[in-house]
Amino acid sequence: MEKLRMISLDCGLTEELKWGKPCYTFQDSNIVIIQGFKEFCALLFCKGALLKDPNGILKKFGWQAARRIPFTNVREIVEMEPTLKAYIHEAIEAEKAGLKVNYKKNPEPIPEEFQNKLDEIPALKAAFDALTPGRQRGYILYFSGAKQSKTRESRVAKCMPQILKGKGLNDS
Question: Are residue 19 and residue 53 in the same domain, yes or no?
Answer without folding.
Answer: yes
